[in-house]
């Protein structure tokens, strides 16, 4: 198995938080381009991850029902309230007064919340006190031990 | 047309966004130090808990049913900013009046589209922030305020009420509206209006403006024009004494100079502090705002406000100025031509009524003066010789000054360690 990587540029440790310099062009690894010295734009991670700032919230995940889609206990979820949820989306919903994160989908004509872990059963939404909260657009999962997100 | 957008039970609504369990329950938010109830849900109102009621005076039987939270200004300030951001997407003319109210101008918009626009705006605020809002529309701020009240109270409006100044409906409504219900008419003025035979808003609308100006003030004269539908009062005229104090001013010319803003905020905050001391109040939070000229579409527009809680209720100008400056620092954006800035002192409480529990009887003026001098000297020593050079010797007292916020909910939107937890 091989992984394809694209080199974007060096990380400038003196850059302001969240902004990384972007090299002018794509370069093949091992073949330095003179364009590397011309920084033409800054990469803003927040702008990349967040389309609607005033409608975007961070939430903390707790539990193990979503490990199948890579959401683990303690992960940082980025949630956009302004997006319209479609079947298949990972959403936050208030169910019986509790905020829960699941995959929203239909089975026949019925709406369900599905866990991404076979140990959890689907939750039918009919007959429950529930309210849409937001769509999870990204999950930030830390891979460095002791590195807090 | 002018719209007044008012967040319904704002503080409680903010709490409910991140803790849906509070939905449908009697929830109250207490002032700093957990003293008085400063915000109430509909349910807690129905239980008879009054605005400003000291928490310990709530009947124990009722108290047990209520959920009382400490105020969480970091959360309310951030949610307020988000609401204002959404409003700014619908018209460039947004004037923040308080943490939960803004006046919007829809000048130049087709009048017949306004109802729908405001419905869309209302739904977007609810969707993006979770905060329910009501919208009142008319041609003046006073009438917009009345319309907003109706939008909240009369379900058929569906949250957006328009009052045309000359319609039969408006007339019928004003005819039964007591003058006490009008924005800016205080209880005492209402009593005096009654002696002149003016009891309803409609009677006031038809009174002689110049005559009433002599008896009352220029603001009363303007209220009459406002009731007729002319927009003529400024928000500075109408800050309610005792609840909030606003000082703001436009610059003589546009400026992008940070020093100008610093200077203006310093002057405005000092002035607000003076006003606060004059009415013997203490502020619990301060809002700083800046904005560009809305009538210059050729320039980048920018409008930003920030609410900062004060560590303890205060009327010390130095502390107010320091806090306001820190606020300005974080909302100032370089390269923008600013037209206006200002501050608002919020959630005021009475000096004589402070909830420290150690002043068994109200202080005499002489004693108060001595106390103030003492505090001033203390501050000076600590300032010049380093923090905590001199401290009060009575542990009870210093404990009392500590901010009590035992029931404060997490700062869900401003602290990484306190994010809302979602079950996965």
| Radius of gyration of chain A (Å) | 20 Å
**Tally of discrete structural domains of chain A:** 2
Distance between the termini of chain B: 47 Å
What order do the strands of the largest sheet of chain B run in, or round the barrel if closed? 5-6-1-7-8
Percentage of β-strand residues of chain A? 35-45%
> How does the helix and strand content of chain B classify structurally?
alpha+beta
CATH architecture call of the largest domain in chain A: Ribbon
CATH superfamily of the largest domain in chain A: Umud Fragment, subunit A
How many strand segments of chain B?
A: 14
Q: Structural class per helix/strand content of chain A?
A: mainly beta
The level of helicity of chain A is under 10%
CATH topology of the largest domain in chain A: Umud Fragment, subunit A
Number of helices of chain B: 15
Mean pLDDT across every amino acid position of chain A: 82
Low-confidence segments of chain B: 354-363, 391-403
What share of the residues of chain B lie within helices?
25-40%
Number of strands of chain A: 9
Order of helices and strands of chain A: EEHEEEEEEE
Structural topology:
The complex is a heterodimer of chains A (149) and B (424).
Chain A: E1 19-23, E2 39-44, H1 45-49, E3 56-62, E4 76-80, E5 90-95, E6 98-107, E7 110-114, E8 123-124, E9 130-140
Antiparallel strand pairs in A: 1-2, 3-4, 4-9, 5-6, 5-9, 6-7, 7-8
Chain B: E1 2-7, H1 10-18, E2 27-30, E3 37-40, H2 42-46, H3 60-65, E4 67-70, H4 73-88, E5 94-98, E6 101-105, H5 114-129, E7 133-138, H6 141-153, E8 160-162, H7 168-175, H8 187-195, H9 201-205, H10 209-215, H11 218-228, E9 245-255, H12 258-278, E10 281-292, E11 303-314, H13 317-331, E12 338-346, E13 349-350, H14 365-385, H15 395-401, E14 420-423
Parallel strand pairs in B: 2-4, 7-8
Antiparallel strand pairs in B: 1-6, 1-7, 2-3, 5-6, 9-12, 10-11, 10-12, 10-13
Helix pairs in contact in B: 4-5, 10-11, 12-13
């Amino acid at each position: 198995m091989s992984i394809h990587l694209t080199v974007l540029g060096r990380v400038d440790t003196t850059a302001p938080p969240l902004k990384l310099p972007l090299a002018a062009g794509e370069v093949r690894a091992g073949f330095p381009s003179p364009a590397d010295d011309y920084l033409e734009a800054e990469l803003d991670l927040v702008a990349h991850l967040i389309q609607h700032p005033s409608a975007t919230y961070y939430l903390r995940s707790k539990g193990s029902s979503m490990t199948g889609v890579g959401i683990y206990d303690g992960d940082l979820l980025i949630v956009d309230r302004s997006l319209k949820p479609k079947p298949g989306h990972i959403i936050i919903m208030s169910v019986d007064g509790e905020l829960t994160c699941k995959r929203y989908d239909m089975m026949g004509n019925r709406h369900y919340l599905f866990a991404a872990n076979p140990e959890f059963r689907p939750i039918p939404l009919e007959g429950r006190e529930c309210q849409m909260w937001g769509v999870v657009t990204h999950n930030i999962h830390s891979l460095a031990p002791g590195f807090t997100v | 047309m002018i719209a007044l957008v008012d967040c319904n039970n704002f503080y409680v609504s903010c709490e409910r966004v991140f803790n849906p369990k509070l939905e449908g329950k009697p929830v109250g938010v207490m002032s700093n130090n957990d003293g008085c109830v400063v915000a109430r849900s509909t349910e807690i109102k129905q239980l008879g808990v009054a605005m400003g009621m000291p928490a310990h005076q709530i009947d124990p039987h009722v108290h047990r049913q209520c959920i009382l939270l400490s105020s969480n200004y970091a959360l309310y300030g951030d949610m307020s900013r988000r609401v204002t951001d959404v409003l700014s997407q619908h018209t460039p003319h947004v004037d923040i009046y308080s943490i939960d109210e803004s006046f919007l101008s829809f000048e130049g918009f087709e009048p017949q589209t306004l109802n729908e626009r405001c419905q869309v705006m209302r739904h977007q605020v609810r969707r993006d922030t979770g905060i329910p809002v009501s919208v009142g529309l008319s041609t003046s701020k006073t009438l917009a305020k009345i319309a907003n009240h109706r939008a909240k109270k009369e379900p058929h409006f569906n949250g957006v009420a328009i009052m045309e100044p000359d319609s039969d409906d408006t007339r019928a409504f004003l005819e039964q509206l007591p003058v006490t219900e009008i924005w800016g008419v205080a209880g005492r003025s209402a009593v005096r209006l009654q002696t002149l035979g003016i009891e309803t808003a409609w009677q006031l609308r038809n009174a002689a403006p110049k005559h009433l100006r002599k008896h009352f003030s220029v603001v009363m004269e303007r209220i009459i024009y406002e009731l007729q539908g002319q927009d003529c009062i400024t928000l500075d005229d109408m800050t309610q004494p005792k609840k909030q104090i606003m000082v703001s001013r436009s610059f003589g010319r546009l400026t992008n100079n940070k020093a100008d803003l610093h200077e203006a905020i310093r002057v405005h905050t000092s002035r607000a502090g003076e006003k606060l001391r004059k009415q013997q109040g203490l502020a619990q939070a301060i809002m700083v705002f800046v904005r560009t000229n809305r009538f210059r579409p050729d320039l980048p527009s920018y409008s930003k406000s920030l609410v900062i809680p004060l560590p303890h209720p205060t009327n010390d100008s130095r502390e107010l100025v320091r806090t306001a400056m820190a606020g300005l620092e974080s909302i100032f954006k370089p390269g923008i031509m600013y037209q206006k800035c200002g501050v608002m002192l919020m959630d005021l409480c009475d000096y004589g009524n402070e909830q420290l529990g150690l002043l068994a009887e109200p202080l005499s003026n002489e004693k108060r003066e001595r106390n103030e001098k003492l505090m001033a000297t203390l501050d000076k020593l600590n300032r010049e010789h380093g923090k905590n050079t001199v401290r009060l010797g009575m542990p009870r007292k210093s404990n009392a000054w500590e901010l009590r916020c035992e029931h404060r909910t997490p700062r869900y939107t401003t602290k990484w360690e306190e994010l809302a937890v979602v079950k996965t």
